[in-house]
Specification:
This protein has 13 helices and five strands. The chain is mainly α.
Length: about 375
């Protein structure tokens, strides 16, 4: 059910097809030989473009049909409190939220907004917003953009969102985000970076030195041996993954949420690992669902099954490659889920899968390694 999108052709596609896993594929394959030879390494750092965009989307507050929330459910209240502490009453984004919420909830093409910035890898915050505003201003067709790196994203978005009224919504959102950055979020983001950057850098180093080498066979099996991992507090338990240009593993991007105490490096490593592996598992889940014949015509059911399967897959990967982290993963997942976390509770009970899918998923993991 996940839609493969190639840089060579960007068809106009209904984005409801992408709910089951939030997986974007820029390339339709990858070189196994190149994957085996390349270094296994992911950068781990916040990205202001991602954080601002998902800040806005979290305030809009439209969640997807999957089993896990797209956005941190307490984020809106937290930001209202933060604005009050800074003496900021209402921003233009706050004023636009009812209109934006109604549009995103009712227009299926606007589901694209839930992962739009991943179409613009390496593009600055201003470059991203300028490209979105250009699409809105153009009204139809593909607009010219100032940053060549934004051309693919602009082409993809313009090919999917064609309706002038929907493009107007894009423009309203982009303009509101620009003002949100100037009035509130820019200062808030920089202040937060001062507090968290040191611990995040250390957690990223440990993640690269301990977790990635052990899971390298699985990651290489799906061309995910390198990329950018961007923890973003507005994002919920359901992250976003973009599998990029097969010839350039650094095109891969993963955005995950971040809830834990930022001064606890050990806890950050556990959270980053758990969230990353779930997203990295979606290609394996996609393959397993296809092999087991479970990918059907119901996107909501597929989204829930694939989300549970990706969670279970993360545990399976650790069981096979880093068994010392399996219990930490289990504890973190069950705590984050908000369910019962007793010694007798296991991922198998909390996230039951159809037997055919479970068998296929184990086979895919073994085959990739």
């Amino acid at each position: 059910m996940k839609q493969a999108i190639s840089k060579r052709a960007v068809p106009p596609l209904p984005w409801c097809a992408s709910w089951a896993g939030f997986l974007l594929l820029f390339g339709l394959g990858f070189s196994a030989a190149a994957a085996q030879q390349s270094e296994v390494r992911w950068s781990v750092a916040a990205d202001p473009s991602m954080d601002l965009w998902f800040h806005g989307m979290a305030l809009i507050g439209v969640q997807g049909p999957g089993g896990a929330p797209l956005y941190d459910v307490g984020y809106g209240a937290e930001m209202r409190g933060e604005k009050e502490r800074r003496g900021i009453a209402v921003t233009p984004l706050d004023q636009a939220l009812p209109t934006l919420r109604a549009a995103v909830a009712s227009e299926s093409e606007l589901e694209l907004l839930h992962f739009l910035p991943l179409y613009f890898p390496g593009v600055s915050r201003s470059g991203l917003l300028q490209a979105v505003e250009a699409i809105s201003t153009a009204g139809s067709g593909v607009p010219a953009v100032a940053d060549p790196r934004a051309e693919f994203g602009a082409t993809a978005i313009a090919s999917i969102i064609r309706d002038p009224d929907q493009r107007e919504v894009l423009g309203v959102f982009a303009e509101a985000l620009e003002e949100e950055w100037d009035l509130f979020f820019g200062d808030y983001w920089r202040d937060r970076q001062v507090r968290v950057e040191g611990a995040m850098t250390e957690a990223g180093r440990t993640f690269n030195e301990s977790v990635l080498p052990a899971t390298a066979p699985f990651l290489r099996g799906f061309g995910l041996q390198a990329g950018r991992l961007m923890p973003s507090p507005p994002v919920g338990l359901e992250g976003r993954i973009l599998a990029g240009d097969p010839s350039n593993p650094w095109d891969n991007q993963v955005v995950v949420g971040l809830e834990g105490a930022t001064e606890d490096v050990s806890g950050l490593v556990t959270e980053i690992t758990a969230r990353f592996l779930k997203e990295a598992c979606y290609p394996a889940v996609r393959e397993a669902m296809s092999a087991s014949g479970l990918a059907g015509s119901d996107p909501v059911a597929d989204a829930r099954i694939s989300s549970d399967a990706a969670t279970r897959c993360g545990g399976m990967v650790l069981d096979r490659f880093v068994p010392s982290m399996s219990q930490e993963y289990r504890n973190w997942v069950l705590d984050a889920r908000g369910g019962t976390n007793s010694p007798s509770t296991d991922l198998l009970e909390a996230f039951p899968l159809p037997p055919a899918l479970e068998r296929a998923l184990l086979q895919v993991i073994q085959g990739a390694s």
